[in-house]
What does this fold into?
Amino acid sequence: MANVLVYAETRGAALRKLALEAVTAARALADASGGGEVHALVAGPSGVGAASEQLGAYGADVVYVVEHAALSNFERESIAATLADRAKQGGYRAVVLGFSTQGRDLGPRLAVKLDAPIASDVTEINVAGDAIVVKHPGYANKVLVTLTLSGSLVVLSVRPGAITAKQAARSARVESIQPAVDPSASRVVVKQVVEGAKGRPDLGEAPVIVAGGRGLKAAENFKLVEELADAFGNAAVGATRAVTDDGWRPHSDQIGQTGRQVSPQLYVAIGISGAIQHLAGMRTSKTIVAINKDKDAPIFKVADYGIVGDVLEVVPALTTAVKAARASH
Amino acid sequence: MGAPAVKIAVCIKRTPDSESRFRIASSGVAIDEAGLKFDIDDFAGYAVEAALQINEKGGGGETVVVAVGPDSVQESLRKAMSMGADRAVQLKVDSVPADGLAVAKALAAELKDGGYDLILFGKHAFDTSAGVVGTATAELLGLPCVTAVSQLDVASGRGSARRELEGAAELVEFPLPAVVTIDEGVARPRYPSLKGIMAAKKKPLESKPAQLGAVRVSVQKAELPPERPAGRIIGEGASAVPELVRLLQSEAKVL
Ligand SMILES: Cc1cc2nc3c(=O)[nH]c(=O)nc-3n(C[C@H](O)[C@H](O)[C@H](O)COP(=O)(O)OP(=O)(O)OC[C@H]3O[C@@H](n4cnc5c(N)ncnc54)[C@H](O)[C@@H]3O)c2cc1C
It folds into this structure.
């Protein structure tokens, strides 16, 4: 029997979807390791402990709450130290995180602090005797790799969206703990936060992504993409590198090999050619729609539904139709 | 007087061209490398360029490129020197393990007493896309670490950077020495000039065994993921929109 420690990531004071996915992964791993407990650690400003109930509902037996005013911005050094401290209390088989900006930063730090092997961006976790075996899509999703990790404690970060969060009701015991090091003493000082688009879900979590490419012809036409995203209601907006290079959209919107890797339920590609580096970031989307005037554009090779046509004509029509469809139910 | 000279290490990985069609080697645990084109990984290339620009701006300084890998990485190290890096270190292994922590330990052992002000990495490499080695090396060396940096400046012993987050960014400051992992946006790597290529042949490339320690992550299997079903064009122009909406509702069930 072995317990699993999971980092329950928050944004502001709200749990992220990937935190619940990580808890689900941790629950399954604890169950497969002989029925251990899942211990979640949530960190943030005062009030973040309110997340405990939801963590319990998804399968956490214990929630450690770290509240500190200086944790309102994700503070890596302090959170990594606090997680490592916790993990060193013993009895843990694994520390599970989401493979997000936060998880990318915490995972390697934990691996060093705990001298534990690490696997990143995993889509499946299994127990095989003394080893933990994970699947990880590498080479920009072109090669699926199965990795074996030896060692009594391992660090795993889970690809957002790869594991479906499942309720597994527990009434979690809640315990307040202090940060292991002072979160206001970080060596890296944040001078300014540059906020991205407000009022839209993050690309990593949005069920629908509407993405635009150079086929939109001019920065001002990007509003067609925005309007279609608004029509879906729950959509994030993405872009190709051609578009971020031209400054129509910020780099943080870029999808692809050197941008974000996304896997939404629905990906709508507007005026996007489908270069291999763009496909690398979105080819695992569940359903892909493409609108392009060139019937030979490579995007049509991966599009479940393609429309050959001018985006300036097709997209407004689609926006109207989506609004109507959503209004009718 | 310009900024004080900065000593920079850039840790680079050699990866296959991302446009390649991959096949699995007969071992079943790796890709078949035959016929693939390899080069400095994209993000590591940005890191080399960033280092060169910092030292060109400051005047003086030194840029050292370091790679863990078999002898084939020497070609990438030479390329970085032909771009302008001053010297290179190969930490030799037969093949780069899938254990990022082991690779970080080998790099930390080499960099520990090197007197570097700045140690740069790509934010992750195309092949493993794990993003472990840079941050783990920082942690092993006890240095501050700033990940996914798209703008980087160094002045009077301090660094300032723009760090890309998910849908947002942070402007941060930090003391040197520090480790920084580079995202796109810093600078596109320059092409080596003919003069650079000639000069690189005479620059020092030191090769020594990598001190990996225990390797605890290994590849059990590599396979090609299932292909997406072939795409389908459902129509032309705005008149195809009703059919698309119908399919999104009834077939894909996403509307
Ligand atoms: C190392 C490296 C990394 C890269 N990383 C990324 C990355 O992360 N993400 C990324 O996206 N790219 C990346 N790229 C760039 C990539 O190769 C492509 O250049 C880029 O994706 C093209 O963007 P695009 O589809 O918007 O533009 P284009 O390729 O120019 O395509 C525009 C498309 O719009 C269509 N079109 C034009 N007018 C209309 C119209 N009126 N109506 C309908 N359709 C129209 C055209 O038929 C064409 O297919 C990378 C490249 C390199 C070398």
Remarks:
- Chain A touches chain B through 93 residues (CB under 8 Å).
- Chain A has a mean pLDDT of 95.
- The CA atoms of residues 116 and 323 of chain A lie 50 Å apart.
